[in-house]
Amino acid sequence: MTLNVKDLEVALGGAAIVKRASLSCAPGQFAMLIGPNGAGKSTLLKALSGLLPSRGHVSLKEATLGKAERQEVIAYMPQDIGPTSSLTVLEVILLGRLRSLGLSVPGDLAEAAQAALARFGLAALQGRTLDAISGGQRQLLFLAQALFRQPDVLLLDEPTAALDLRHQLVVLEAVRKHCTDHGTIAIAAMHDLTLAAQFADQMICLSQGRIEAKGPPENVLTVDRLQRVYGVEAEISLSAQGRPNVMPLRAS
């Protein structure tokens, strides 16, 4: 079920935003998409999900995915999730399995939805409406919905942005476990390089719409690359697990 992307290009308003992006992710792999603001990370994720028109080739299980096929097998969680409806928390997560719903909710599906909420500490909120919970809680809820959908590919745009330290780890550990248990491919756009490196099977560094580097975190996160791509001087050390820790020192 390898995801293969070759020469993906996205143009918005006549300007090239993503330029000939090629990447490959194996089943169960958790990849981190990194790069400075404006590098094209969100645009790339939206194009992969079928939400933006693009050129190039996207395939899964050696089958080419058009726009409709991508929306069937790929779940996308955007960065900005506002209170756009008065649905309850339970109703929102059940929408992840919309095709399994009829005039009533099967008992096993309701139990599974409640278990998914409990995983993120949201069970007590299941009767609240979306506009009555915090931004961080909404972020957890929509991740729970995306996992509940059981997609082949999960695309996450800054999934930890509105979360405290503990819930950042809860989210990334949950995605890591879901990938391992179900063979799901996950790609997350992240700004915290040290946190991303802790969970990444591979890193994909985007700069000015082009893939600058891809591979294991220790190969992608180098002092020279951080200076060239991010414009910062940094120190990099290795954790006890051999993962890079990035310490930014100054803007260069």
TrEMBL record:
MF term (GO), any: ATP binding
Keywords in alphabetical order: ATP-binding, Nucleotide-binding
InterPro entries, sorted: AAA+_ATPase (IPR003593), ABC_transporter-like_ATP-bd (IPR003439), ABC_transporter-like_CS (IPR017871), P-loop_NTPase (IPR027417)
Protein name (record): ABC transporter ATP-binding protein
ABC transporter domain boundaries: 3-233
A Pfam family hit: ABC_tran
Highest taxon of source: Bacteria
